[in-house]
Write the structure tokens for this entry.
Amino acid sequence: MKRSEPHCILITGATGALGGALAEAYAAPGVTLILHGRDQVVLHALAARCEAKGATTHLHDADAAERESWHASLVEVATAYPIDLAIACAGVNLHPPGPGHVESWPEAAALMEVNILATLALVEALLPGMRARGAGQIALLSSLAAFYGLPLTPAYSASKAALKAYGESLRGWLAPAGISVNVVMPGYVDSAMCRAMPGPKPFLWAAVPAAQVIKRGLAANRARITFPRLLALGCWSLSVLPPALSGLVLRLLRYGP
């Protein structure tokens, strides 16, 4: 079932390449964009571009890694604005320093705080208002790495798998309340974070076409929005193959030490 056009949209991580592209994709007269990001220079420049397209913008710079203040800021936003669509784009990446090592505990814990717990806080803050209105849509940015954990990015893959499972669970639970939940699972989208990731990056997409695919998928209320198709098929296949074979494939493709 298609959803009506959203008029009040919250985007976390809007200063990232994909979050920014999504903001500009939705910017239009009559649209209110609530944009979250930590880089104030980038955030204000993004707001100016969105306003040039006719949108109204409100900016927020709460730190997703600070649990209590992050949740409080989200409750404040959800109370002040009738949010139709929330897109949880805020996220960080991490990789082991070398073969035989894993990510340090402080760094891995910080990643889980931003990638998982900040998203759970967002959902919890939004639900009272969406339930009262009997409508709303929440998009969780996962990754194709959620299908099968990549050896080069264990903590990141785990966080994206958690978001996939969480979003799929929420979709069934919240549907009777008129609230849609969509799991967005992109492949490699060009950004500073993507470029910092180790390993090959096949089928690398620019942020603008990726945002358009996501926008169309959300309008169609697709449960999973996966792209590019060939890479999505390959990652899904890894999840159904015997683990020994999946591991061999990844090593042959240079996704392992």
Q: What stands out?
A: Strands lie at 8-12, 32-36, 56-60, 85-88, 136-141, 179-186, 224-227. The chain has one domain: 8-252. The mean pLDDT is 94. Residues 105-133 form the longest helix (29 residues).
